[in-house]
Design goal:
The protein is α/β, with parallel strands linked by helices and about 550 residues long. The chain is about 45% helix and about 15% strand. The protein is built from 20 helices and 16 strands. Strands 11-12-16-15-13-14 form a 6-stranded mixed sheet, with helices on both faces. It has a 5-stranded mixed sheet with strand order 1-10-9-7-8. A 5-stranded parallel sheet has the order 3-2-4-5-6, sandwiched between helices. The radius of gyration is 23 Å and the shape is globular. The protein starts with a strand and ends with a helix.
């Protein structure tokens, strides 16, 4: 089999209890047939035009030769480096595909000025801007992050005397504003199936164009996916998608957090893709599943909370694994193409079990609206409650800052955690320059004794951002920002990348606070030095 799943202990009982209803309701075959009524009358119209991903393998086959032809043209013109500007599923799926294949692909899913500059400048090993082609991926064609990146690259190409039309490739939905402007500018354009949402688009043009241009064997990936299609389409208790959905959503009380552990699998970075697929699809109407990306030795694995279901991604579910020691685990193995297919089916099925529409994202727009408002009004930044060790502290509730210390602020934030709560760390910083910052997740999880997520801003706004605002009101939020000397203009816009990033953080904090979610914002004024003080406070 191209995909294997093994469940044990309590999870086995939950699956056995949930599977009969899914099989009798013909859910798997209904999804394959495009039945939008599976998610109830309120979701029917939307679901009916959001199931194109079921046919993605066959629809995408003809794209392979087109992508390979363009790859040859670019290479003949001296291109040795591919940069992808995209957000959410448009960047996370390509990142997993490229990393798993061992193919270099630069992902630009940030508005941090340092990352933008690094993506434009390149390096001696992979090539500079003259050897770089940019793939701009946006379904709507109006995503502010990708539009800003496109503008910056266009200006940079002009500055070195290169026609952007020879270097920019666009992936978008047919009829989008981006498609029209791209054709007018002479860019290569790939249009994707508009009936596929961004987070389900791994096997469409959004996942295939950037990775194929970078050198991934797309035929192999599609073959892997195709080998699993029959398994997920049948109404049978052995269907791996039905088993997975039952394991992560079934049972009462339900474990509403999903711990994703990489333990020996050849696939690199899959939990990040699963996180955005599951969180954005299910986190709404006050319910949902919160994915938590873990290490095999994370605090949540050492002492598993009652509301956390562990899923371990392994090389072979039938072999013993070094860190496996819990009976109530789900073990998964399989090819990357199979993983994409099974998780998409399972997530859609989970939506039915939760009684929600897994294809909309009703709360994502609120942060975008707040960001636009801040960029237009340009209000003065709120004063810091206090500053310690070079770190400015801002809070949604003055009581959170009453201690006047970093340690006290974190203690006060953890004190707001309900019994079923979680901590969300949101790092609006240069992801590459401050990569060690991600290690704070382990410290916070141990200190707060609750499941803890870590997201790079602003990319998480297109994934877990939906869950934060639409899911259960159980979270507390720790924003980490940096103040640097670097900024980059956005041609044709009255704001810079630095100002955009700051507005995105402030806008999301305002929306969360307006919903009664506690938010603490820490601004590192000397990022490299201040990280140490932050780590000390979190221990």
């Amino acid at each position: 089999m191209s995909f294997d799943i093994r469940v044990s202990g309590h999870v086995r009982d939950v699956v056995d209890e949930t599977l009969p209803g899914l099989v009798e309701s013909l859910v798997a075959s209904g999804i394959t047939a495009g039945d939008g009524d599976l998610w109830g009358p309120a979701a029917a119209a939307d679901a009916a035009v959001r199931l194109g991903w079921v046919q993605a393998v066959s629809v995408s086959r003809p794209l392979v030769s087109e992508i390979e032809t363009l790859r040859d043209v670019l290479r003949a013109d001296g291109v040795t480096r591919i940069v992808l500007a995209g957000m959410g599923g448009s960047s996370l799926a390509p990142e997993v595909i490229a990393r798993t294949a061992g193919v270099p692909l630069v992902i630009l899913d940030s508005t941090a000025p340092e990352q933008v500059l690094a993506a434009i400048d390149g390096d001696a090993e992979s090539g500079g801007l003259a050897q770089t082609a940019l793939v701009v991926s946006s379904k709507s064609g109006s995503t502010v992050e990708t539009d800003s990146a496109k503008r910056a690259f266009e200006a940079a190409y002009h500055d070195i005397g290169i026609d952007p039309a020879s270097r920019i490739v666009v992936v978008t939905d047919p009829g989008s504003p981006l498609e029209a402007s791209a054709h007018a500018d002479g860019y290569a354009v790939f249009t994707a199936d508009p009936t596929v949402g961004g987070r389900y688009s791994a096997l469409t043009a959004f996942g295939l164009v950037p990775t194929g241009l970078a050198g991934v064997d797309l035929t192999e990936l599609l073959d892997e996916a195709e080998a699993t299609l029959l398994e997920v389409a049948i109404d049978d208790p052995r269907n791996p998608a039905l088993v997975l959905a039952a394991a992560i959503v079934g049972g009462s009380p339900r474990r509403d957090k999903l711990g994703l552990i990489t333990d020996g699998t050849h696939i690199v970075g899959l939990p990040d893709w699963i996180e955005q697929l599951v969180a954005e699809s299910t986190g709404k109407n006050g319910t949902g599943i919160l994915p938590v990306v873990l290490l095999p030795v994370s605090p949540e694995v050492e002492r598993v909370p009652a509301d956390l279901q562990l899923v371990r991604l392994v090389d072979d579910v039938h072999h013993a694994h070094l860190f496996e020691r819990h009976r109530d685990e789900v073990l998964i193995s399989g090819s990357l193409g199979a993983q994409f297919v099974v998780w998409e089916y399972a997530t859609a099925i989970a939506g039915r079990l939760l009684g929600i529409n897994p294809f909309d994202q009703p709360d994502v727009e609120s942060a975008k609206t707040a960001t636009r408002g801040l960029l237009e009004a340009r209000p003065e930044a709120p004063s810091a409650a206090f500053a310690r060790d070079g770190i400015e502290v801002r809070v949604s509730d003055p009581e959170l800052a009453a201690s006047g210390t970093l340690r006290g602020v974190l203690d006060a934030l953890w004190a707001r955690l309900p019994a079923q709560g979680y901590v969300s760390i949101q790092a609006y910083v240069d992801r590459h320059g401050l990569a060690p910052l991600q290690g704070i997740r382990e410290l916070v999880a141990a200190d707060s004794s609750r499941p803890t997520t870590f997201g790079w801003g602003p990319r998480f706004l297109h994934s877990t951002g939906q869950y934060h605002k639409g899911g259960p009101a159980h979270g507390v939020y720790l924003q980490i920002l940096q103040r640097g000397d670097v900024d980059v203009e956005i041609p044709g816009r009255p704001f810079t990348f630095g100002e955009l990033l700051e507005a995105q953080a402030a806008g999301d904090a305002a929306v969360l606070a307006g919903l009664g979610r506690p938010v603490v914002t820490l601004t590192l004024t000397d990022p490299q030095a201040d990280v140490l003080a932050l780590f000390e406070a979190a221990q």
